[in-house]
TrEMBL record:
Keywords: DNA-binding, Transcription, Transcription regulation. GO terms for molecular function: DNA binding. Gene3D superfamilies: Winged helix-like DNA-binding domain superfamily/Winged helix DNA-binding domain (1.10.10.10). PANTHER family: TRANSCRIPTIONAL REGULATOR, TRANSCRIPTIONAL REGULATOR, MARR FAMILY. SUPFAM superfamilies: Winged helix' DNA-binding domain. Residues 10-109 form the HTH hxlR-type domain. Pfam families: HxlR. This is Helix-turn-helix transcriptional regulator.
Amino acid sequence: MAKGKGPYHCGLDAAVDVVGGKWKPLILWALHAGGTLRFGELRRHVPGVSEKMLIQQLREMETDGIVHREVYREVPPKVEYSLTDLGQSLNRALGPLGLWGDENMEHLVANQEAKAAAAVARGA
């Protein structure tokens, strides 16, 4: 519960709190696909994320027990990130959502393009 939201109303409420936002699902997938990754590797696997945002999201995910952060005391410092068992189970739960996105991507993109075209036509 990284955001300190308080009591949840249902399981979906709890899950969305843990994985909500643009970057967390992408970070989960990158760690699933890449295994244990150093910060720079992880950043390359999540295109578009800023260093600040990646650090913030990883801290929240670590607090929630989704990501494990291993610090090696050496020069230069080495830090690796991996999914915990809880993170792996969350990633498995997100699989069907990813399939839904794959199956409906064309429709979703068409809707976004239509919305953008309407905004341009309005002069927005």
